[in-house]
Specification:
Rossmann fold, alpha/beta, single chain, seven-stranded mixed beta sheet, 7 helices, three-stranded mixed beta sheet, about 240 residues, Transketolase_C, THDP-binding, 2 domains, Transketolase
Length: about 240
């Protein structure tokens, strides 16, 4: 059964469950965080609307920089701003950031322990018709090995908003993994969230099988648990924080 302690969306198994792109939560979270903290600045690599950073850019045009299709510069400029006391958020498709600019993230951000927050959108195979060139399958692997980097893969738009806001205060580099397609809303505003803490979304009195899921695929894991109810005892964990 769904863990009642987490106050999850009770309609998440309905066919007409509300679905919102996870990246939308990032945009809303960045806007909310920016309203509270003047140190926050946004930088994008020519994908402002696609990554939903346009919400921040429209409200705070003097705190937003459009870098253009230059992902290496995106990381370098953000590192410099962080060195001057800013809290930069940078966004692009994950295939390009952290994909194309991995070395700059490694050297200028992580080795210097700059609190730059990296939002990589359109991850995994969910981008569909965009093709293999845009399907970031390696982003978790290449970010979790970086020193001081926190890696978070929120399961829905609400958790993405909470992730974005919480990342402001880590004082470290953070990679936030976002999906393109609309994703079922599984959590609620009352669902607790804490960086570094996993949660059991589906509980069982005598579990026989454990499923660990992260990001948008968590919904598929919950559907499997519901289908197996009464046959195999299953517990499902939401591992939103990949590292630490």
């Amino acid at each position: 059964m769904l863990n009642p302690e987490l106050k999850l969306n009770t309609k998440l198994f309905d066919k007409n469950v509300e679905q919102i792109p996870i990246r939308q939560g990032f945009g809303e979270g960045l806007l909310e965080a920016g309203e509270k903290d003047q140190r926050i600045v946004g930088l994008c690599a020519d994908l402002t609307e696609s990554t939903k950073m346009n919400l921040f850019a429209e409200k705070f045009p003097r705190r937003f920089i459009e870098i253009g299709v230059a992902e290496q510069n995106l990381a370098g400029v953000a590192s410099g701003l962080a060195a001057m006391g800013k809290i930069p958020f940078i966004s692009s498709y994950a295939m390009f950031s952290p994909g194309r600019n991995w070395e700059q993230i490694r050297t200028t951000i992580c080795y210097n322990d700059r609190p730059v927050k990296i939002a990589g959108s359109h991850t995994g195979v969910s981008v569909g018709p965009d093709g293999g060139t845009h399907q970031a399958l390696e982003d978790i692997a290449i970010t979790r090995v970086l020193p001081r980097m926190i890696v978070i893969s929120p399961c829905d738009s609400i958790e993405a908003r909470k992730t974005t806001i919480a990342s402001v205060d880590t004082g470290t580099p953070v990679y936030i993994r976002l999906a393109r397609e609309k994703t079922p809303v599984m959590t609620t505003e009352k669902t607790p969230f804490e960086i570094g803490k996993a949660q059991i979304f589906w509980k069982s009195s005598k579990p026989q099988v454990g499923i660990i899921a992260t990001g948008a695929l968590l919904h598929q894991a919950l559907l499997a648990a519901e289908a197996l109810e009464g046959k195999i005892e299953v517990e499902v964990m939401n591992l939103s924080t990949i590292k630490p």
